[in-house]
Design a protein that fits this description.
Layout lengths: L3 E6 L4 H7 L3 H7 L4 E7 L12 E7 L4 H14 L3 E3 L8 H10 L3 E4 L12 E2 L16 H10 L27 E5 L12 H14 L3 E5 L4 H10 L7 E3 L7 H8 L3 E5 L2 H8 L4 E5 L3 H6 L7 E5 L11 H13 L4 E5 L2
Parallel strand pairs: 1-2, 1-4, 2-3, 4-5, 5-6, 7-8, 7-10, 8-9, 10-11, 11-12, 12-13
Helix pairs in contact: 1-9, 3-4, 6-11
Amino acid sequence: MTKRILILSHDNKIGDAIVVTGLFKPLRAHWPDCEIGVLCGASNAALYQHHPDVKYLHVSSSRNVFARLWASLKARLVGYDMVVHFGLDLANPSVQLVLNTVKAKQRFLFLKHPTTPLPNDVVMEGDWGYSPNTKAQHYSARHLRLLQTLGATPEAYHYDIHLGTDAHATSPSGDGRLMVINSQSSAANKSFSLPWLQAFVAAVYAEHPNLRMQLLSASPALESAMRDMFSAQADRVWVAPFAPTVTPSLAIIQSADLVVSPDTYAVHAASAWNKPVIALYEPSVLSVDSWEPLSDTYAQLIAPPGQSVSDIEVPEVMKALSHMLATPKSRERIFLK
């Protein structure tokens, strides 16, 4: 009998959506005739719309409650046997609205529902690292736990991004390896400031003449500022045009030889294609453990306590870069003081 499984990804988070892509192949291997649906936001729909294992895609056009209600109603019409929510935010009214509206036959949750638990809920409680007295686990541990609960046994968990045939990366011409730099995350303390970015690009330009650099644009204003800032280095530094969808940035990361980024989706996209990555983190144990890169080669640099990623000194990043270039398949986690 065909099983229909709905994955909730309506929070619009692109990094979370990349992690979810690792579920689809193991699910189809376990239940070859299962039909997988995803309820997502407009920001992360690109991670699902071209995936061959996703049959149904229900996109909430915005974070507005009515948009999420409409997407949930469309999912309800499909008639899902199972709905899976990986978050621990079950008290959030938006999450409760989606779960109640979808009305799947069975819910798979990672925390007991705080207000309306149902008799056939499957609750996969565990040490997910959100307590100050516990060690955080990588976010993919929840996805593995779901697969194990369903009886599937994947050997390893791999992200599985599929871009459309129209997704092309336009990269700077010239010889040498391509370093893609993503400077922006969800908050200022997790992002590279423009002065920090300028200092880092100048150091790479001077010390590694065999590296070309491509900078991702998170907004038209940032694109303009970076074009002005690096105009004198345009022979090896290129600023990607801003795009309202993440697809062009993903295509650029796919074409990269190495990636530099704060703790954000670009780290996980690099891991999906096993690109060497230098990832800069704020001093949060939860972020460091939960969102560790999965590439064979990476350097994970953690800012000193109470400081932001832009407080990580450029020479420390340059040191990690030199080590990574000289030592493939090395993994470093460095807590800076």
